[in-house]
Amino acid sequence: MQNSELNNGRPLVMRSEKQKMLAVELYDATDAELNIERQRARLLCHTLNNLAPHEDTRRHALLAELLGTANGADIQPPFFCDYGYNIEIGAHGYFNVSCVVLDVMPVRIGAHVLFGPGVQVYTASHPLSAADRRTGLECAKPVNVGDDVWVGGGAVICPGVSIGAGTVIGAGSVVTRDLPALVLAAGNPCRVIRPL
Predict the structure, then answer these.
(1) What is this structure's pTM?
(2) Is residue 46 one of the residues assigned to a domain?
(3) pLDDT tens, 135-167?
(4) Model confidence over 107-122: pLDDT tens digits?
(5) Domain annotation covers residue 8
(6) Domain residues for 100?
(7) Would you say residue 11 lies in a domain?
């Protein structure tokens, strides 16, 4: 037994920082494995963002490599993400230019979702306590966007948020809490304005 420490008579199992990250626990983002995976995503995004406009076949192949499955998503460059493999996009998803997805945790985007230019989706977060932040540990929460959602340009979707199907989010909104289906919502913080 390599690990001499015991937990109720059983050996402690050492978990990787990636396992902690995906388990919604504090983790060390400077971990070597995570750095390699982020670098891979940056290189794929760089290649994707520098393709000539007519290179559709290569673009679809790169998106499939970056995301695992692209489901025919139309992502306009430039596009940026942390890992790529935590992003799931339903059929006919559209991202306008300059979208950013910090996919430390899963980001599930439904079918027929439209993102305006400059939309940012964050799963990554940091502890609220300054002392805890000084440890360098980070945390994250998943984001879910239902089918047929339209997110206006410059909107920010914060960690842990779920957006119901058919909802429209106004440009420049900051979505800090869950939104129900079939509503128009806008503002900072984003609030329901009316049903659709």
Answers:
(1) 0.91
(2) yes
(3) 999 999 999 999 999 999 999 999 999 999 999
(4) 999 999 999 999 999 9
(5) no
(6) 17-195
(7) no
Give the model's pLDDT for residue 8. 66
Give how many domains the chain has, as a whole number. Answer: 1
pLDDT tens sequence across 29-76:
999 999 999 999 999 999 999 999 889 899 989 999 999 878 889 999
Say which residues have a Cβ less than 8 Å from residue 100's Cβ, sequence separation at least 6.
Answer: 79, 80, 81, 119, 120, 121
Please indicate, yes or no, if residue 9 is contained in any of the structural domains.
no
Task: Give the Å distances, CA to CA, from 151 to 71, 96, 137.
Answer: 19, 10, 31
Give the CATH number of the domain where residue 63 resides. 2.160.10.10
Structure tokens at 189: 């913080």
DSSP-derived secondary structure for 91-115: TT-EE-TTEEEE-SS-EEE-TT-EE
Q: Which residues are known catalytic residues?
A: 126
